[in-house]
Amino acid sequence: MQDICKKAADIALKHGANEAEAFLTDKEVITIRIAEARIAEAKGIREHGIAMRVIKDKRIGAASTSLIDENNLTAMVENAVSAANVMQSHAEWKSLPKPSTITAVEGCYDERLNKLSIEECVDIALSMLNSASQFSKISSISGSLHVVRENVFLANSNDINLHDHGTYIIGNINADAKNNGETVSGVGFNAARTLNAFNAESVGKEAGDMATRSVGAKRCEEGIYSIIFTPYALGELLAFVFSYNFNAKAYQDKRSCLYGKLGKQVAVESFTLQDDPRARDCMGSKPFDDEGTPTQKRNLIEDGVFRNIVYDTFYASKDNAESTGNANRSGYPVGRSADPIPFPSIHNIVVKNGDYSKDEIIKETKNGLLVGRLWYTYAVNPEKGDFSCTGRSGVFMIRNGEILGSVKMVRIIDNLQRLLKNISAIGKDSKHVMQWHSLPSVTPSIRVDSIRVIPV
After folding, report:
1. Which of 166, 153, 42, 152 is nearest to 114 (CA)?
2. Residue 391's domain spans which residues?
3. pLDDT value at residue 179
4. Is residue 182 predicted with pLDDT exceeding 90?
5. Which sign does the torsion angle of CA 308, 309, 312, 318 carry?
6. Is 354 within 8 Å of 427 (Cβ atoms)?
7. For the chain, what is the domain count?
8. Percent of the chain with pLDDT over 70
9. Which of 114, 118, 387, 456 has its Cβ near the most Cβ atoms within 10 Å?
10. Model-level pTM?
11. Residue 333 and residue 248 share a domain
12. Distance from C-alpha of 437 to C-alpha of 418, rounded to nearest angstrom
């Protein structure tokens, strides 16, 4: 596979490219799907593909194929060069990355996960299912288990020649409970890069517990509340509201709500937000990015101060900067794909732990909501930071430090810039979550004051 990448890059140079890059993925995905409290599907898919990016007179062309033989490699290269011929020139372009020191990241590959059979994956999924079934009020259970094994190969005309391999396991359970004709739900999630770090039973228990505790939910009055976002809920905000504001394209396009505030205080001093692609056992961890640049831990917000945005090579050249090692070609359900053009994005978005336990945060909350799960989270106005989301399940009323009971769905409306300055407590209960197979997050619970809540 490494030779194929090198060969593709060499062919591109012979066809008139000044620079060339080949990125090849060889991936196996086992999926176990749960529906109606039973195993509904078990399948394994093997897929591979190669992507080609060429630079000719500072014009960039790209192509890809899943057919890896000499004829298709040549056709792919010809398509990429032809595309470059009709593209506009990027005068600021510098070059594709050159070789540099790459250090390994521990805990990203597990031979036991690599050898798991479909039958063994079914057994793990059954453990998730059975642990949710133990809750007597549960009426319906669904979910999935994904086990991914991948090899990635990268070569370019600047003598980069790299290989990486990874394993992933992701499980989620949705459990429904009925009470007086109304259905409430709960969710459980666990993800790891090694089999020992994955807890199948906890997935079902989390879902069953959230759904059971949500039975008897009452309507919440519209008003201003302090909201405690648990890790699973905050992970959705990090993926779909926070992260966009730190990628170089959004910043250069002035679409980031933090545009023009680098070096300025944008959050409370206790808040630090990081990109950590070298965190052990995390879905987005890797030794080098998808262009071959070494990855590194980086503070995005440090003690409340906006410190960094993230670059790949292309967007770094626009600012006459260096790549931060954040070129990504994201794949489904996790890992990489053979996308011809990478995009700058965070690998693992991390909220640094605070000093509070979740119980302490609850005790200090006078009028608030504890939110376990968000739904329909999106930026309403990215440039200003306005966003909306729905507390779908696992939402509980807090009065004077006590949880009074569950409440029905609520719409939460706020602004990211205001939220960052209204954080009043940060927990120390960090958990690794990954919402909708998007951005991996590592975060504790946090409390944010003065948020408008509207019952749905």
Report:
1. 166
2. 223-455
3. 75
4. no
5. negative
6. yes
7. 2
8. 100
9. 387
10. 0.95
11. yes
12. 27
